[in-house]
From TrEMBL:
ARM repeats, residue ranges: 89-131, 308-340
Family matches, as PANTHER family: RAP1 GTPASE-GDP DISSOCIATION STIMULATOR 1 (PTHR10957)
Keyword annotations: Cytoplasm, Endoplasmic reticulum, Mitochondrion
Cellular compartments annotated: Cytoplasm, Cytosol; Endoplasmic reticulum; Mitochondrion
Name of this chain's protein: Rap1 GTPase-GDP dissociation stimulator 1
GO cellular component terms, A-Z: cytosol; endoplasmic reticulum; mitochondrion
Length: 558
């Protein structure tokens, strides 16, 4: 290591004199020492203060520039050297060197910047602000024959693409075109994998999704699927998964999705359809998720239901009832739920037997499946009185809903169960449904739902409770009393933060409860008149009118 100390001293002198030959000799010795013991050599370099001189050596016209950049890249492999490199002002001259024509300079400069900024979001953000993204994309286009430089660019893209601030800059370059061009040339799995790792974070951006679709990425992905679908080699299975996942990601953008749907006639849409009946779980999953993504507007949903997609999804679900694949169940139910949103599709899906197919999963213990099952049923019965009545009289279903209303660990399942209970009453307006829900112990959950933090859920609960009070008050009064409904209504009316529709529906409900002796007594004991009379001057006309009617009713009944 004494030789190293001599080299460092000599380097200080030659760095100032700029004698190229002796400078080159010193740099070679340093690189040799780093190759033998990187950490110890890096410590000596830091102690010597030589880093400060490196900034002045990073000049485009010097023959030593590549070696200086290489030394910086090597020392910056050590975490303790990264801040000293930044403090020595090396980032700015290195970024300037990305405009060099020399491929070795470019390679070592890229390595140096990559190592200095490794794992540091703030330094990577600084690089983005200095405009390295357009420069690197240009380099990839010019030097696509140089494997080492290409790899350097891809590693840099992979790191920078993790930052949200990079996406806009990437979108203003032709990165999509360059990556797809590069992808088409690759034969080796590792190289494709490397490009995939850049594509995935970039494809989260909607503008880039569209650019990737226009650059022909989808055709590449479909080709991979076709080639690898029957293979049982580990690399091929991984590639198939990555390609089909990326395909689904591209469909999350509205414009890219619509472009690929092509009115349901598109080649891509047809190919994705063929994945659903396949025997490959990964393809079944991607196919169902793709349909769920295509089903994001009414036009697409109506077209798909008219062209038999529901039967394909039901067949898929059937294959996964016993010990089925949970992710496939979840994806197929997601697709059915989205397809059931347009009013015109509901009756068609009901008569195709979707309810029966979905109810087979009632015994599932997996919250994601439970959540989608509930959402699908709720969409199907919206304004479908007959279906709502049929489901609402299904004791097994109602008992399971009541059980899930207590799933404290799974807020989504709990919320959806409450909403479906309320929907069964609101859409069926059936005494039998109300009796089934009372007998299964569902009333207390609807009362609790009226205190939800979501106005839409509060409202749904109040409307359902008003129907219960109007149609089956005698059957439900005990449960309404023990759930403290009257006290809750008093609180909702007195609370200034309650939305106008909540106040309105609470008063409608109060009037409906007057037919029960025990609840009527509770209303009298709580001095409702004071709260209601204040609402007569409410800025919302409907609330003010309902307050007058409720006040009259309370006065007469007292």
């Amino acid at each position: 290591m004494d030789n190293l100390s001599d080299t460092l001293k000599k380097l200080k002198i030659t760095a100032v004199d700029r004698t190229e030959d002796s400078l080159e000799g010193c740099l070679d010795c340093l690189l040799q020492a780093l190759a033998q013991n990187n950490m110890e050599t890096s410590e000596k370099i830091q102690e010597s203060g030589i880093l400060q001189l490196f900034a002045s050596l990073l000049i485009p016209q010097s023959s030593c520039t590549a070696k200086v950049a290489n030394i910086i890249a090597e020392v910056a492999k050590n975490e303790f050297m990264r801040t000293p490199c930044v403090d020595a002002g090396l980032i700015s001259p290195l970024v300037q060197l990305l405009n060099s024509k020399d491929q070795e300079v470019l390679l070592q400069t890229g390595r140096a910047l990559g190592n200095i900024c490794y794992d540091s979001h703030s330094l990577q953000a600084q690089l983005i602000n200095m405009g390295v993204i357009p420069t690197l994309v240009k380099l990839l286009g010019i030097h696509c024959q140089n494997a080492a430089l290409t790899e350097m660019c891809l590693v840099a893209f992979g790191n920078l693409a993790e930052l949200e601030s990079s996406k806009e800059q990437f979108a203003s370059t032709n990165i999509a075109e360059e990556l797809v061009k590069l992808f088409k040339k690759q034969i080796e799995h590792d190289k494709k994998e490397m490009i995939f790792e850049v594509l995935a974070p970039l494809a989260e951006n909607d503008a880039i999704k569209l650019q990737l679709v226009e650059a022909g990425l989808v055709e590449c992905l479909l080709e991979i699927v076709q080639q690898k679908v029957d293979s049982d080699k580990e690399d091929d299975i991984a590639e198939l998964k990555t390609a089909s996942d990326l395909m689904v990601l591209l469909l999350l953008g509205d414009e890219s999705m619509q472009k690929l749907f092509e009115g349901g006639k598109g080649n891509v849409f047809q190919r994705v359809l063929s994945w659903i009946p396949s025997n490959n779980h990964q393809l079944q999953l991607a196919g169902a998720l793709a349909i769920a993504n295509f089903a994001r507007n009414d036009g697409n949903c109506i077209h798909m239901v008219d062209n038999g997609i529901v039967e394909k999804l039901m067949d898929l679900l059937d294959r996964h009832v016993e010990d089925g694949n949970v992710t496939v169940q979840h994806a197929a139910l997601s697709a059915l739920r989205n397809l059931a949103i347009p009013v015109i599709n509901k009756a068609k899906m009901l008569s195709a037997g979707v309810t029966e197919a979905v109810l087979k999963f009632l015994k599932s213990e997996m919250p994601p499946v439970q959540f989608k099952l509930l959402g699908t049923l709720r969409m199907l019965i919206d304004a479908q009185a007959e279906a709502a009545e049929q489901l609402g009289k299904n004791v097994k279903l109602v008992e399971r809903l009541v059980e899930w209303c207590e799933a404290k660990d799974h807020a989504g399942v709990m919320g959806e169960s409450n909403r479906l209970l309320s929907a069964l009453i609101r859409h069926s307006k059936s005494k039998d449904v109300i009796k089934t829900i009372v007998q299964s112990g569902g009333i207390k959950h609807l009362v609790t739902m009226a205190t939800s933090e979501h106005v839409i859920m509060q409202n749904e609960a109040l409307v359902a409770l008003a129907l219960i009070a109007a149609l089956e008050l005698g059957t439900a009064e005990k449960d309404l009393e023990s759930a403290k409904l009257v006290q809750i209504l008093h609180r909702l009316l007195a609370d200034e933060r309650s939305a106008p529709e909540i106040k309105y529906n609470s008063m409608v409900l109060i009037c409906a409860l007057m037919g029960s002796e025990c609840l009527h007594k509770e209303v009298q004991d709580l001095a409702f008149l004071d709260v209601v009379s204040k609402l007569r001057s409410h800025e919302n006309k409907s609330v003010a009118q309902q307050a007058s009617l409720t006040e009259q009713r309370l006065t007469v009944e007292s």
